[in-house]
Write a structure and sequence with these properties.
The chain is mostly beta strands and 114 residues long. It contains one helix and ten strands; from the N terminus they run βββαβββββββ. Strand 4 and strand 5 form a beta hairpin. The radius of gyration is 13 Å and the shape is globular.
């Protein structure tokens, strides 16, 4: 069964940093562009960043310069390094393919607050 498991979320103060991780089954991870999404309460789930199998990444303007996406193909793991966090980054963060064609995991909560 295909699974996505996100981890690393936490409560952090503005200006702080977190690194999120997402593990996926090899059958999905090895052939897909992988992505991070986030969903704040009452809002739609938005794309944050995505990365190709060869490591070419695209970061959305709202987090550009602060967030970095990376992947370890040997470990079937996707990462999101988040620096200079702001309260508006508060959301539940999810990983999936860029096509969103894998059942969603439970996500990991990031709360930025003083």
């Amino acid at each position: 069964q295909v699974q996505l498991v996100e981890s690393g979320g936490d409560l952090v103060q503005p200006g702080g940093s977190l690194r999120l991780s997402c593990t996926a089954s090899r059958s999905i991870f090895s052939v897909n562009v992988m992505a991070w999404y986030r969903q704040a309460p009452g809002k739609q789930r938005d794309l944050v960043a995505h990365i190709t199998t060869t490591g070419v990444s695209t970061i959305q303007n709202s987090v550009k310069g602060r967030f970095t996406i990376s992947r370890d193909n040997a470990k079937n793991t996707l990462y999101l390094q988040m620096n200079s966090l702001k309260p508006e980054d508060t959301a539940r963060y999810y990983c999936n393919t860029i096509l969103r064609n894998v059942p969603w995991g439970q996500g990991t909560q990031v709360t930025v607050s003083s």
